[in-house]
Structures are given as C-alpha cells and as structure tokens.
Amino acid sequence: MKFLKFLVVGILFGIILVKSEAVSWYRIYEMFRFQSFHMYGIIGTAIGSGILFLQIAKKGWLKNSKGETIIVPQKERGFARYIIGGIIFGLGWALIGACPGPMYILLGAGVYSMLIVIAAALFGTFIYGILKHKLPH
Question: Taking the complete model, does pTM exceed 0.70, yes or no?
C-alpha cells in the first residue's frame, strides 16, 4: 500500500507519454532525422522543468516523499565520460527506438518485442556490474 502513489504516478506518466506520442518509433525516427520539432519540444520541456525543480530543491523549498529536505550532491568532474555515455545512449535509442523508461510503457501498450530489448538492457546492466571495477570512473 505504501508504494501505491508511485504506481499511480508511473501509470499517469505512461499514459502521458503514450498520448503525447513520445514513445512512438515514428516520432523518434523523425527526431533523429531532424524532420520534426515534436520530440525536441517534449525533451526541452522536460529539461526546463528539471532545471526549475532542481533549483527549487537546492533552495530547500522542495521535500522528498518522506518529507525530508532534498540534498543535491555536487556534480563530479569529467566532461568526456558524459559525452561518451551520451553517444552510447543516443545510439541505443536510435537503434531501438526507445529509451529505458518507454521500454516498459511500450511493453504495457502491447509491443511485446520490447521483451527482447528489456532482456538485453538487463543483460547489459549485469555485464556492467561485472566489469565496473575495471572501467574508468
């Protein structure tokens, strides 16, 4: 019962992404080919609201689900790792047509081929866990 609010928020988030066509392979394809502003508008809105809420949290005006003050840790140094990680993420997104959150939304919407993608993502996470101590961080 304690996690019901998170389930409701997740379901609402999924409905919003489906209705806004943010999980549509065709919209993602248009975005990567620079043919439509639709996805850039959604991503821009998410970035803008993320910046706004992060600044509100840094001021201490926003609390977490337990009522505690949100502590925002300092960002680690190292620009190259963000670029490399972003390129890998973007290539996977372009190849599959979905980023990690929408994979589950698409599965819930009946796109059962996402089971393969989710299995591959879990396998990749497992491999990362094995190799983590050998990778530069």
Answer: no
> Of 92, 100, 115, 96, which is closest to residue 17 (Cα–Cα)?
100
| Nearest-angstrom CA–CA distance, 19 and 102 | 12
Classify 63 as helix, strand or coil.
strand
Query: What are the residues facing 63 on neighbouring strands?
Result: 69
Rounded to whole angstroms, how far apart are CA atoms 124 and 122?
Answer: 5
CA-closest candidate to residue 94, choices 13, 18, 20, 39? 39
Q: What pLDDT shows up at residue 84? A: 87
Angstrom distance (rounded) from CA 45 to CA 42: 5
pLDDT tens readout for residues 61-103? 888 878 888 888 887 777 888 888 889 888 888 888 788 888 8
List the one residue out of 93, 100, 104 whose CA is nearest residue 125: 100
